[in-house]
Amino acid sequence: MKIDFADVRRIASDEICIGKGHRYATLVMDLDSGAIIFVGEGKSADSLVPFWKRLGRRRHRIEAVAMDMSSAYISAVRGNLPKADIVFDRFHVVKLMNEKLTTLRRQLFQRATADEKSVLKGSRWLLLKNPENLREDRNEEAHLAATLELNEPLAQAYYLKEELRIFWEHTFRWPAQWFLRSWCERAIATGLKPLRTTAKTLMRLEEGLLNYFEHRISSGPMEGTNNKTKTVQRQAYGIRDREYFELTLYSLHQTKYALVG
Fold it and tell me: What is the pTM of this model?
């Protein structure tokens, strides 16, 4: 399918799982039009090689790319889009923090007494939930409070996780930078390895995080496309014709699918 890249300025890249057997495709979206403009095979940086070739000289017009924090993807974008700002997506930063919090909880659970384990059991998803989404009818707020009271390191990690959300609420770049550096210093000061690792990662990738305040983009629109893609797969009872599936992806922004099934 022939794509016109003339007006493409801001893009997002992410991978999706298709079919069974851990098959993946790498998608590139034009964030201004909402259209998928490239579908690559697999989920490695090499999946984007055909995209760079198709862009040709137009690659110099790309202003910003919303993406995850993969080193391979970072190198690929920097090498092929010399004038584009990398914007690390909020979803992937939150995912990283949640993974570290889950790791810490697992470590604490392994060392916990029988009574402590009874409190920690079932708390994994409560720690990852936003406070406003805790359900009263399931007594989730009380369960979370008991979990945090049980262990100070876990409470430190949880409150830092919640505080990190404030980063994207800033209006300007310099206050966000001050906040981020302060957050990282406090995370490192806890002495907890999962938090130290997260803080050092965010410090190393600071520029890409702060670029959000220049472009205000994310790969969030890709999540809507992923949901539509899953719907297409369910309605087709799997993916049998790769070429047809790609054409369907290219037309998703023009088509409305009922999210059923």
Answer: 0.84
